[in-house]
Design a protein that fits this description.
By secondary structure, this protein is of the alpha+beta class. The protein has one domain (about 1-85): Flavin-binding protein dodecin (Dodecin subunit-like), CATH 3.30.1660.10. The chain has helices at about 1-20, 30, 50-65, and strands spanning about 25, 35-45, 70-75, 80-85. β3 (about 70-75) and β4 (about 80-85) form a beta hairpin. The longest helix has 20 residues, at about 1-20. Mean pLDDT is about 80; it is low at about 1-20. Keywords: Signal.
Length: about 90
């Protein structure tokens, strides 16, 4: 029984890991110099942690066909707002 449970957990972890790796990657300004810019995206009214912002930006970047993004603006009030440059 433990083997079946372990196998199921491992399978689930690998599926989650694969899905996460499909997202666009966060890069810094130096890394972005070697990439081709392709526009920008922004997210607003995000509550939670900075990791939630990163996830929302990565999701939008991936939907736009970007392989990477660089955060260019990040503000916090009642909600988070962030803008990112997209790269191929």
């Amino acid at each position: 029984m433990k083997t079946v449970l372990s196998l199921a957990a491992l399978t689930l972890a690998s599926v989650v890991s694969f899905g996460a790796s499909a997202d666009a990657q966060l890069v810094n300004a130096q890394q972005a110099q070697n990439l081709q810019a392709m526009g920008s995206v922004s997210v607003t009214e995000i509550t939670g942690s900075p990791m939630d912002i990163r996830h929302a930006l990565a999701e939008k970047a991936t939907k736009e066909g970007a392989s990477a993004y660089r955060v260019t603006e990040l503000t916090q009030g009642d909600h988070w707002h962030a803008t990112a440059e997209l790269y191929k």
